[in-house]
């Protein structure tokens, strides 16, 4: 069975799927035409019939004789994919608006503060992390590497990796300060987006930090964290230079 790409499905086909998805009994072409007209599609009944025949051939709908059509399982899966893509696009547009509202100086100030705090947290984690905490860090890093290989966002894993280091450091004051500065997952998403635009790599830098923690090397963990944050600072500068050139 040929794969149907989300961006190849026509608007009126999507609307037919939405209508049928809300029905438990077959819907005839005449009723479908009335519902499509109500939704702004000026189509004749003959045109609707032709559209439905094409959707039958694509296995998006199931014909029940003269009774009409129901959405097929394939049609339902495609509709879910369409709705997922629509939500992603809305979230992406909202995210870009948030990013554009950020000032370069604010991001740099936040990263400078993180550098001061997280270098200490990394050093402490190299001394105080339990084997169980290190295992959790390894699992998060593996997931982040998997997502990076698939070119997918891994902001949640980034935030969790840094939280695990803060927890392993066993210093509640520094951990609380980091939570305040990081401003939740949204800031991780912004920084990851910037890194992707300038082709930076979070997972590689996290691996260096974790290796030093596993080796119980406080100085190495501190330096790896400093290098990581300074790399983020450099990427923020690069991103703003790029955006100015594109204006």
Word description of this protein:
The protein has 247 residues and is mainly α. It folds into two domains: 85 residues, Winged helix-like DNA-binding domain superfamily/Winged helix DNA-binding domain (Arc Repressor Mutant, subunit A); 145 residues, GntR ligand-binding domain-like (Four Helix Bundle (Hemerythrin (Met), subunit A)), CATH 1.20.120.530. It contains eleven helices and two strands. A two-stranded antiparallel ribbon has the order 1-2. α1 packs across α4 and α5 packs parallel to α10. The longest helix is centred in the middle third of the chain and has 29 residues. The radius of gyration is 26 Å and the shape is elongated. The model has no long low-confidence stretch (mean pLDDT 85).
User: How are the strands ordered across the major sheet?
Assistant: 1-2
| Fourth-tier CATH superfamily name of the largest domain | GntR ligand-binding domain-like
Strand content: under 5%
- How large is the count of helical segments? 11
CATH class of the largest domain: Mainly Alpha
Biggest sheet layout: 2 strands, antiparallel
Number of strands: 2
Q: Give the C-alpha Rg.
A: 26 Å
| Domain unit count | 2
Question: Low-confidence segments, ≥5 residues, pLDDT <50?
Answer: none
Shape annotation: elongated
Instruction: Give the H and E element order.
Output: HHHEEHHHHHHHH
């Amino acid at each position: 069975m040929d794969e149907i790409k989300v961006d190849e499905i026509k608007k009126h086909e999507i609307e037919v799927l939405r209508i049928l998805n809300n029905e438990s009994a077959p819907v005839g072409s005449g009723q479908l035409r009335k519902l499509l007209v109500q939704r702004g599609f000026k189509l004749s009944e003959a045109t609707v019939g032709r559209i439905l025949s094409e959707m039958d051939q694509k296995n998006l709908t199931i014909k029940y004789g003269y009774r009409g059509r129901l959405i097929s399982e394939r049609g339902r899966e495609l509709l879910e994919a369409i709705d997922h893509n629509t939500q992603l696009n809305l979230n992406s547009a909202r995210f870009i608006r948030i990013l554009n509202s950020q000032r370069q100086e604010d991001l740099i100030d936040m990263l400078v503060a993180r550098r001061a705090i997280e270098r200490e947290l990394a050093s402490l984690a190299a001394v105080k992390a339990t084997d169980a905490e290190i295992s959790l860090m390894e699992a998060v890093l593996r997931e982040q590497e998997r997502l990076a290989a698939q070119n997918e966002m891994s902001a949640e894993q980034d935030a969790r990796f840094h939280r695990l280091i803060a927890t392993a450091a066993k210093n509640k004051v520094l951990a609380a300060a980091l939570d305040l500065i990081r401003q939740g997952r949204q800031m991780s998403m912004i920084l990851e987006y910037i890194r992707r635009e300038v082709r930076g790599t979070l997972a590689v830098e996290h691996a260096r930090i974790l290796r030093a923690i596993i080796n119980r090397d406080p100085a190495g963990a501190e330096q790896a964290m400093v290098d990581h944050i300074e790399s983020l600072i450099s990427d923020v500068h690069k991103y703003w230079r790029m955006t100015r050139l594109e204006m």
